Amino acid sequence: MPPSINYHLNKACNYSCKFCYARFEDSAEYLGRGMLPKAQQLEVVRQIAAAGFEKITFAGGEPTLVPWLAELVATAKDAGMTTMVVSNGSRLDAAAFDAFGGKLDWLVISIDSADDGTHLAIGRAQKGKTQSAAKYRATADLARHHGIRLKMNTVVNRLNVDEDMSELIAQMAPERWKLFQVLPIDGQNDGYVEELEITRAEFDAFVARHRGLADAGIVVVSESNEAMTGSYAMVDPAGRFFDNTMGAHTYSRPILEVGIREAFSQVSFDLETFKARGGEYDW
Q1: End-to-end Cα spacing for the chain
Q2: Does residue 172 sit in helix, strand or coil?
Q3: Is the dihedral of CA 74, 75, 81, 87 positive or negative?
């Protein structure tokens, strides 16, 4: 098993990003309200910790829509894991950060542009309204004020591939900025993502355009489609491991049904690709 794992807690999201690979409509038979009950989610976290994972990233959907997110984070932290939350940031304010009670180590903010119009076109918005650059900066500042380390994620796609986000990223000053080449996944974003796909050369050009951020102490990490495939240990909202090696999601039996090691053995994972894409770092 790798040292890190991503737990996608829920299907629900208040945004509608066209490229989203984590819609989990194919998990409906296992889910009532789009996620496991609180007690079962807590047990999944305990089993993840007991299996020896060092870092857990809570994702979604949008994980801040889970009412007991802070308790899940605390359970993971108290079990000895480094804790992360990936969020669009729209629901994070001072009270939300206070609720984590010092148990959250990292916040990962998903942001794809410095331009409101681009975010609207991507679908990173709710009811036609997206976050301003000032709101993103304020969220980053709040995280640091609460002693939380900062990362940022950007999906490079047809709508932002020619953009230079250097100024905004430098202002937000994350420790790490991860760039993903938009990844098509059958059954998740097909019918939406096709108009957003880019070539590897276009992705590499976007990465190169932002290499200067290293001078500001920001580590820029790039992940092409090849680097992302089969290199993540991921759990879905139904508590099953899943992989993307076949261009679609393949799922294990539920962890709470067969145990974490048996469930993990039922999906594909490439440890060497995980290491090659920089999956291990000082967290």
Answers
A1: 18
A2: helix
A3: negative
Return the DSSP state at 21.
S
Contacts of 138 (CB under 8 A, 6+ apart): none
Q: Which of 261, 260, 264, 59 is nearest to 251 (CA)?
A: 264
Q: Output the pLDDT for position 272.
A: 94
Find tokens 């108009």 and name the residue.
Answer: 195
CA 160 to CA 142: how far, in whole Å? 27
Contact by Cβ (8 Å): 78, 103 = yes
Residues near 20 by beta carbon (within 8 Å), at least 6 away in sequence = 13, 188, 189, 192
Whole-number Å distance between alpha carbons of 142 and 277: 29
Q: What are the tens digits of pLDDT across the range 130-156?
A: 999 999 999 999 999 999 999 999 999
CATH fold of the domain at 4-147+231-276: TIM Barrel (3.20.20)
Tell the burial category of 49 from Cβ atoms under 10 Å away from its Cβ (0-12, 13-18, 19+). Answer: buried
Give the confidence band of 32 by pLDDT, cuts at 50, 70, 90: low
Please state, rounded to an integer, the average pLDDT across all residues of the chain: 96
Q: Which 8-state DSSP code applies to residue 218?
A: P
Q: Where are the beta strands (DSSP E) in 111-174?
A: 149-156
The tens digit of pLDDT for each residue in 210-240 reads 999 999 999 999 999 999 999 999 999 999 9
Q: Give dist(CA 263, CA 256) in Å, integer.
A: 9
Q: Which of 30-39, 51-60, 192-201 has the lowest mean pLDDT?
A: 30-39
DSSP code of 248? B
Inter-axis angle of helices 38-50 and 69-78, to 10 degrees? 20
Catalytic residues: 13, 17, 20
pTM of the predicted structure, to 2 decimals: 0.96
